[in-house]
Structure formats: C-alpha cells, structure tokens
Amino acid sequence: MSACGYENGLISIDEAIQYILSTPKTLATESILVKNSLSRYLSEAVYSPVNLPSFDQSAVDGYALCSQQTDSKEQVFQLIGEVRAGEESHLALSEGQAIRIFTGGKIPDGTSTVARQEIVKIMDDQNIRIVENLNIGVDIRREGEEVKYGQCLANVGQYMNIGSLAALSMAGVQRVSVYKQAKVAVVVTGDEVAQSQNSLSNAQVFDANGPLLKNWLKQYGIDAHVIHVEDQASAVTALFEGLKSEYDVIITTGGVSVGDYDFVRPCSFDVGFQQVFWKVKQKPGKPLYFAKYEKQQKNCYLLGLPGNPAAVYVCMQVYGKLLLDALQNKREQKSGFKAKITHDLKADHRERFLRMVATFNQSTLEVSALAKQQSHMLSNLMLTDCLVRIPAAKQINAGELVDGLFI
Amino acid sequence: MSACGYENGLISIDEAIQYILSTPKTLATESILVKNSLSRYLSEAVYSPVNLPSFDQSAVDGYALCSQQTDSKEQVFQLIGEVRAGEESHLALSEGQAIRIFTGGKIPDGTSTVARQEIVKIMDDQNIRIVENLNIGVDIRREGEEVKYGQCLANVGQYMNIGSLAALSMAGVQRVSVYKQAKVAVVVTGDEVAQSQNSLSNAQVFDANGPLLKNWLKQYGIDAHVIHVEDQASAVTALFEGLKSEYDVIITTGGVSVGDYDFVRPCSFDVGFQQVFWKVKQKPGKPLYFAKYEKQQKNCYLLGLPGNPAAVYVCMQVYGKLLLDALQNKREQKSGFKAKITHDLKADHRERFLRMVATFNQSTLEVSALAKQQSHMLSNLMLTDCLVRIPAAKQINAGELVDGLFI
C-alpha cells in the first residue's frame, strides 16, 4: 500500500471525538411508556412513587404467627384463616394465633413473625405446631426496606436497559421523559455499489454498507431509511436538500475522499452544511467527514463515512455511536478497556483501530489481532469482538497494554 | 431470612445448565435474506460465491500506468482516458500510457502499477508526470486476495451479528439457512401482580416481570406474547393447553414454589408436560422449574421462573438464554470471564449469582457486588453490568478470582 496519510491538516482521533461530542445540539424530549423505553436515555430523573415493598409482606410460603414467646419451639398455634398473595384481608392475629400465608402475601395485623412451612407441623384443621425456634420478625419484607417513597430511582442520562426498565416497572413508574432518538437516513453512494444483489456488473461490488448500517442502527434502536444514490452531483444535492429538513442525521458511505466523483462534501455545502472536520489521522477511515446544518428549530448532522466497509464498520462503532448518543445528551467517550496484547505489532505512521479477539487469561484481558485488516476487507468480522486503538509510529511489544472497546 | 435451601433433591447449577443444554430438540431451519438475519444462528456453512475482490481494482484515487521502467520518477505518461468506480471500460494501456482511475475502479488491461494522485503532476490535458519512484503492482487490490471463490466464509453455528452480516453481504451472499427462532409465550402468574399499573390494590405489586421478559426477548430477537393469568388451576391448565401446541417455549413467572396456589407445575402435568428438573441449589431462583412436552412433530418447553423479579432477571440471563440458544442448536455454556473481586464476601450455604459492577484496573477485570441483592429487590439493576457466580459455603477474600458473565 502507498504511504498516504502524511498530509497536513488532518486532525487526530481524539480531536475528531471531541468535535463529535461537542457539536450536536441535543434533541427534544418526549414522554413515553416505561415498557417502550428500551435503549433510550432519560431526560428527567425518576423518583419513586411508592415504598418498595409497598406493604409488609411474607418472604415465604408459611404461617404468620402472633407470639411473644422467644422459645417458640413446640409451641402450638390456632389457625384462624389464610391470606393469599394479592389478597386484601382484614384478618388480625392475637397471641397464640396463626394465619396461613404465601410469598408476597400482606402481613396481617398482629403478626410477630413468619414461620416458613418447612418448620411447621399441621396437627389438625385448626392447629399447627412450630418445630424450630423462631426469632421475632423473621421472613417479613418490610415496607420501604428497598426503596423509600420519593427516593431517586434513576438520574438524568440513565440508559434504559433491561434492568433499569424492570426496576422502574417494579416501582410502578409508568412513563419516563427521554430524549428523542435521531431520525436517520443512510445514503449509500458509489456507482460501483450494486443496487441489488442480482444486477452486478463486472466492475461492481456488492453492497455491504447498506445492510451493515441498517442493522447497526436497528440494534441501536433506530429504524433507518437506506437510500442508494448515483455519483452525480445534481442527484446528491437534490437528495441532501430533501433529507436535511426531514432527518436529524444523514450518514453517507463513500464519496468523501479526494476523487473527482467524491460529491458528498461539495454537495453538502450546496445545501447549506458547514464542515466541522474532514480527514482524520486514522486507519481505517482517513476521509471521515462531519458537517452540520443548523437553522433555528431544525438541525441536521452529516456523518460522511468512507466507502470501504471496514472503515464504515469501525467509524460507526467509534464515531457514529458517539454522535447518536450526543444527540441524546450523552456526551461521554465510551469507557472501553485496557488489555494485554499477545503479540508484537509493527509501527504504522497512522493511528489505527484494529479488529481483534479478546479472551480472558485468568482475570487479565488479552487481545490478539486478526489477519486481513485492510479497509476493503471484512471477512474477519466473523470473529472480531473488539476494536483496539494502536498509537501512530509506535512499535508494540507482546505484553504491552493497549486500549480497546468491545463491540 | 430463613435458612431454606438445605432440602434434599435439589440439583446444582451445573446440573441444571446441562439439562437445559441437552434437553431441547433443535428447531427446524429456514432460508432467510442475509439482511434480515441479525441475531440468528446459521444451520448451513456459507461458501463464497465470488472472489473478493472480484476483479483487480484500484486502492486509491490516481492513475493506472503501464511502464516497464523501475525508475519511474519524473517519467511522463500519456493520459488516454478515465475509469470510474463501477464502470466497465474496454480501455487498455500500452507502454508509457496512463488512465485516470478512482478507488474501486477496475484495473485496465496492461496496467503495471497505480500512482496515487498525490504523487502525480498534471502537465496538460494529455500528459502527467510521476514525482516519486513507484514499484510494480502498487495500490492494486488483487482479485481473490481476501477471499477465494468457494472458500468457507462462515460455519454452521455462526452467530449473525452486524459484522458477520456485513461480511456475507460483501461476498454477495443473498440468503442463508438459519435455525428458526422459538415462538415464545410469557405467562405472568400471581394474583398479587397488578394487571395494569393503574389498578393496584393494597396487597398487590406492580408487574416488573412482564416488561422485563418482553424487552429481554425483544433484544434477543423474539417478539414474545405476554399473558397474565389468575391463580386458578383451571385457568392455568386451559392456558397451557392452548399454548403448548402454538408455542415452542412457555416462560412462566411465579407459581413454581411450594405454596398451595403454585399451579404451574401441577397444571403443566395436566396438559402432558414432563418434569426435567425442579429446584436448583442457587440464590436467587431456587424454585426454577423446567419441563418438556414432546409429541411427534410438536415440542414445547416450559421454563418456570420464580416470581421475584431479581430471580427472573438472573434465571433469564443464565438459563433462558441457554434454552433459546439450544433450540437453535447452540449448545454451549456462555464463556463468561474470570475477575478479581475487590472485597471480602461472607459464605452462604447456597451457590449465588450476585449482581455486580465490572471495571478494568489496567488489564485486570475487577468486580464489586452491589447492595440489595435479595431476590425481591431490583433497584441495583440500574448499575449492574455483570453476574458473578459465588460457590456455596465458601468465604471469598478480596483479590480472589471469581467467575462471571457480562449482561
């Protein structure tokens, strides 16, 4: 390969990341049902509308007892009724009485402790005997012992994963305020990219970028619109003109390098976009382009990815994720990991994101580069589970620590 | 809490996992479009229908040259035309000639090397000069250098993530054979579980399990049907009778313990299910129940989760995932990780899955337990990013290695 990348004016990966984090204006917020909030970021903190548990309840299937005796072994209780889980009962216990109760059942007034059924002998219809000593207050989940009414359950910026969604549901939170997710259009450029898998000419390639971005965004939680456009300035300009007012983000692939048919940048200028940056000292993805269109109420951001699928894959994991997060006011660089590399790595003049496999050796994370890292090659993605960032112009030795992120 | 868990007949976590992996009969296969194959497992290997690249192509924007001279610096070439990416051209080069070419463009016959445009001076409309020495065959991606026609791209069992989907798309693979995903019904039992967030009686709790499982399955790739059923044997039996012939998997929550209103097990027997196991020496999730209904062409598996949301969460991550994978012929225990625990941990008589936070200290993964681990408590799920398995009856000291899995 040629030694491109020595050009002036290229920014570093860290600078590019800072632009991506700081440029976008946060999207509006909306109120949605908690059960539909998967993959969203909270725009308002959530306070508990209840105590959890919201009443004293049994932790087991057994018997609620009323007894002031500390030595309850062999004590006999008179059975006066039953409380099922979910049942509102007005039964109350007096000394020496018991009520059959089930896990989650509301503790009757007068209860001193609960005996799980494994330590209870049923003598007859009306009497039970306890076969072990039992302290006061055993197997009772107390009202508010986990969460108090009004307590903060989740802060602004909380990511709604399965766990947070379940926890808010449990506290009876019905709706949450979240940042809207970007409306995203994906524009695949390049006459060499076949529009369909059936109509490939001799000089064309199959489209990996369309399916890649469509599914990446689906996993992120966004149903993106994918459009193919021919390499004609008028067509690209007309497309951008229509998209900029309808979408929050346009992600393009191809057409951002220095070729005569690289129309993405000039056509974006034609419709009013301003360049934030173009070209990053990185491999893959050097031609990466980022632009903004900000007009009163309507903003649109254009992330111009290179055409090579590996560059698309890496740039989307690194920059695309940050951009979509930043629009939801999550302006943090993915934390990632440190790992030991298992082999030497020759220096390269550009900073690189290498596709690697991560494994645990005891508690130490180790990473190993896969073969075929060139930007037009994708087949190693079957095995890739992390991207590792290798500084420019630095020989890496086996055992050194490197920075990476899981994908 | 009481010291339940000493019962006889409980199986270990490892035994339960083995039953979950070995019991299910693999689902049928189907052919689907690659672009729709996210989250699926391949049932047939995929061989490349093409070479990749499928023709010799330029790796840069520049000029295809024909020159037998090794010292090309200052050599002048006659420009005879242009080849755009995607264009099928019949232009061919003779000694001393050049053709303008763009990244991905098909290399013309007669080309000896490619000069990237940064090292080319345009003299006039018809002549260019090279300003650096250039070897033979530079910046040409050779046909088949990444993948050869007929080469295996993906094996049986390959998980279709974004990367594998993109790699197959790039090779022009249109359809893949995959295992069907299970049709899943979620049955939330328990009269104490409010059917809606608006109609909570004094003795009821909000439903966390329905939203939890619905969204967990959504993330797995399955659109599950969620049903609430009252604690009445006739209702549960009638429901199971209908579901067993329509669904591959029934996941229930609650009703699998030893209470008088725990109808899941007896009602599953009523409609022909056979118990595979019941009760596991674990915390949370001791009452876990697994049963099968296998009749000629129609199998159905019932995973009876406890009612406590934390047990549901943990059992789904551990056992539910394995069951759904096994139905797609993926019969492996999730690999997980080893990590150093940052603090002491008291022994417990049962083996436990604890909700923890994982962080990297240099390349060493460290885990720390969160507060409020009881099985009816969920609020720590806002922070949880891994489950750590702690052996029974063993005091753990800070710095010891423990096994875990990311969630």
UniProtKB/TrEMBL annotation, chains A, B:
Enzyme Commission (EC) number: 2.10.1.1
Enzyme class: transferase
SUPFAM superfamilies from the UniProt entry: MoeA C-terminal domain-like, MoeA N-terminal region -like, Molybdenum cofactor biosynthesis proteins
Family according to the record: Belongs to the MoeA family.
Highest taxon listed in the record's lineage: Bacteria
Organism annotation: Acinetobacter guerrae
Biological or metabolic pathway of the protein: Cofactor biosynthesis; molybdopterin biosynthesis
Gene Ontology terms: cellular component: cytosol
Cofactor requirement: Mg(2+)
Protein name: Molybdopterin molybdenumtransferase
Domain MoaB/Mog: 185-326
